Amino acid sequence: MNETPNVTLARGDGIGPEITDAVLNILDSAGARLNFEEIQIGETQFLSGHKSGIAPETWETIRKNPVFLKAPITTPLGGGYKSLNVTIRKSLNLFANVRPSRAYAPYVPCQFENMDLVVIRENEEDLYAGIEHQQTAEVTQVLKLITRPGCERIVRYAFEYARAHGRKHVTCMTKNNIMKHTDGLFSKVFHEIAQEYPDIQNDHQIIDIGAARVAAEPHKFDVIVTLNLYGDIISDIASQVTGSVGLAGSANIGEHVSMFEAVHGSAPDIAGKDLANPSGLLLGATQMLVHLGQQDVAQRIENAWLKTLEDGVHTGDLFGAQSTQRVGCKAFAKAIAERLGEEP
Ligand code: NAD
Q1: Predicted pLDDT of residue 321
Q2: How far is the C-alpha of 103 from the C-alpha of 254, rounded, in Å?
Q3: pLDDT tens digits for 53-72?
Q4: Ligand 1 pocket check: which of 266, 282, 283 to mutate, most ligand atoms within 8 Å of Cβ?
Q5: Which helix (H) or strand (E) holds 120?
Q6: Beta-carbon contacts of residue 12 (< 8 Å; ≥ 6 apart)
Q7: Could you tell me which of 296, 301, 247, 276 has the C-alpha nearest to residue 105?
Q8: Which residues have any ligand 1 atom within 6 Å of their CB?
Q9: 237-275 burial: b if 16+ Cβ within 10 Å, else e
Q10: Which atom of ligand 1 is nearest to the CA of 73?
Q11: Whose CA is nearest to atom 44 of ligand 1?
Q12: pTM, full prediction
């Protein structure tokens, strides 16, 4: 592993630049060994005529570096703009989206103290394959694409992830009672591959009741593997249940390049006000450090971050009975940097 790997960096839109500054300050203070190469993507590029939100030459930088730290991007509404997030995931074959959500109770109020689940979302197929048509003025259509190789790759990844992280149970969620071919294939492959992992328990739940259970009893789940759209929705539910969507980071794993980000979006309603919680992008960055073999730095950052939460230093989205100080994005990052080297 390269001692100081190159990292593609995009500061993103909305709250992106402020949470990126906060995260870069913490990474620097913690002694992360990273060489950043910054790129411009998102709103500026959409508005300068690139309908996909990225200039063609920028791909070269993204493809040559092993990892990409990306702040959230705004997708302009209407006007034929494509989601750049979807384009990046598909173009780089980022097949697995790993989204952990755990409770930080009692420091961040959450009803479920033992909640600690990971959503593993298929990241390239399903309704996000981008095959959508306007058939007539009043009829639209989108194709749901599910392939056996795609199902096998994500399901195997989920079981391997469970094994590597000492997790005991993988739950598959689909709507195979209605979509018998597409979701049916995903659940069939899940049951086949589960046989190869007798050390890991498994079950299948219909996505609607599964999502309701993630909201009502999230502590009963361990690893959840599911299709692209369902995974997008239940991972937001799970992060909100832990206290805020601002608390979840995410890894998008590919064969050559992997991308790390927050689960949430660019939050235009609070952009530029120093109100954003940088934790999602920070936890994405710690996933990236682990991926790059810098577990020691990742652990130091996570400890300092937990200690900050324990001390009651909270951004507005987390503010509650356990808070001692309500701080903005910058002060929260400073509080974390000051606690580096401390144990939670
Ligand atoms: P959002 O996640 O940006 O915001 C939802 C709500 O959560 C808002 O009230 C926001 O203020 C709050 N919130 C989000 N992140 C927060 C944080 N870090 N700290 C405190 N509060 C936070 O979702 P949205 O409003 O549906 O989307 C806004 C834009 O982001 C859209 O253009 C969407 O396409 C884009 N988006 C981008 C990504 C990405 O780049 N990965 C993901 C989701 C949405």
Answers
A1: 82
A2: 28
A3: 999 999 999 999 999 999 99
A4: 266
A5: strand 116-122
A6: 20, 42, 70, 71, 72, 73, 266
A7: 247
A8: 15, 72-75, 85, 245-246, 261, 264-270, 276-277, 280, 317
A9: bbbbbbbbbbbbbbbbbbeebbbbbbbbbbbeebbeebb
A10: 40
A11: 265
A12: 0.93
- Residue 137 one-letter amino acid: A
Cα–Cα nearest to 45, from 60, 55, 59, 58: 55
270 CA: nearest ligand 1 atom: 11
Ramachandran class of 146: left when φ > 0, alpha when ψ lies in -120 to 50, beta otherwise: beta
Give the pLDDT confidence of 272-309 residue by residue, as tens digits: 999 999 999 999 999 999 999 999 999 999 999 999 99
CA dist 110 and 238 (Å) reads: 11
Residue whose entry in the numeric block shows the structure tokens 């509404």: 77
Residue 157 backbone zone (phi > 0: left; psi -120 to 50: alpha; other: beta): alpha
**ipTM of this predicted complex?**
0.98
pLDDT the model gives residue 252: 97
